[in-house]
Design goal:
10 helices, D-Maltodextrin-Binding Protein, domain 2, Arc Repressor Mutant, subunit A, rod-shaped
Length: 304
């Protein structure tokens, strides 16, 4: 079939499609800006090439043969599909599936509220999202883009840094009622603590509290107590419920602070040394659809 439909045959098929639409060589010639004789000659050459007649030449009119009608339907559909795709490409419209994985709390609190904007900008891109912890190894080929929290070291992969994570204590206003004051880290001894045991890849169950208190040079406090959760947003829900004092991530907690559901009992904020970033295989951004989603995430991070 590929030998049958060569470059010249493609040109003849275009003439055939226009002629079949008008059922007139004269009107086809006007649309194609050639002579009627040229149209008639190309149709004859196409018929000889295919080995069957496409038109019945009646007095003062043309009619498609059964073979011509069937071929006209296929050719017209093909040209319409090509035309639509060209228009989509020219207008910058992109379509297809992009596989994205993310650490769950970042997906839940940061990315999900922003996804409607991605959908509005690229309505024909289908995002297949998977929530996976940082402890799940990043394997080349398992995804197109991954949002991760780590120290930026990804052997064999590329990373686009987005933002550094900063942490600080939070609690519900109700937690402070009928309790001793909570004005400095020493007062934590009187309060239950809440822990996210998946703070970053390789962290231990109480890593956030230990990192925070060491960074502000607080007096020794037993932080290996209290409730533990394996998702940051679950830890924040426990804090909102008044169960204890939790370590919040600045990137993920703005809504709860702005609404007053959580407060910051003391003001020191500490960088974790960990960054959110977009991880991808080398060459992944050569796909314009992957590049579009990647650049949109970067744009959202800059806005944030």
């Amino acid at each position: 079939m590929s030998q049958l439909v060569n470059a010249k045959t493609h040109a003849w098929l275009k003439v055939f499609a226009v002629s079949a639409r008008h059922l007139s060589f004269t009107r086809a010639a006007e649309e194609l800006h050639v002579t009627t004789g040229a149209v008639s000659q190309q149709i004859k050459q196409l018929e000889e090439r295919l080995g069957f007649k496409l038109f019945r030449r009646l007095p003062r009119q043309l009619a498609l043969t059964e073979e011509g009608r069937r071929l006209a339907d296929i050719v017209e559909e093909a040209y319409q599909s090509v035309g639509m795709e060209v228009k989509r490409l020219k207008s910058g419209v992109m379509s297809g599936v992009i596989r994205l994985r993310s650490v769950p709390s970042f997906l839940h609190k940061w990315l999900m509220p922003r996804l409607p904007r991605l959908q509005a900008r690229f309505p024909d891109i289908e995002l297949h999202v998977r929530a996976e912890d940082s402890s799940v190894s990043l394997r080349e080929g398992d995804y197109d883009l991954a949002l991760d929290l780590n120290d930026g070291h990804y052997p064999g992969l590329s990373i686009t840094p987005l933002m550094e994570e900063v942490i600080f204590p939070v609690c519900a206003p109700s937690l402070l009622k009928n309790r001793p004051s909570l004005r400095n880290p020493e007062h934590l001894a009187w309060y239950p603590l809440l822990h996210d045991i998946t703070a970053w890849r390789g962290s231990h169950d109480h890593a956030e509290w230990e990192h925070y208190l060491n960074a502000i040079e607080a007096p020794q406090t037993n932080v290996r107590r209290g409730y533990t959760f394996n998702r940051n947003h679950l830890t924040m829900e426990a804090a909102i419920a008044g169960m204890g004092v939790a370590i919040a991530r600045q990137t993920l907690i703005r809504g709860e602070i702005d609404s007053g559901r959580l407060i910051t009992p003391f003001s020191q904020r500490v960088p974790t040394g960990m960054h959110y970033g977009i991880v991808h295989a080398s060459g992944a951004l050569d796909d314009r659809r992957v590049r579009a989603v990647h650049d949109w995430i970067v744009e959202e991070a800059q806005r944030a």
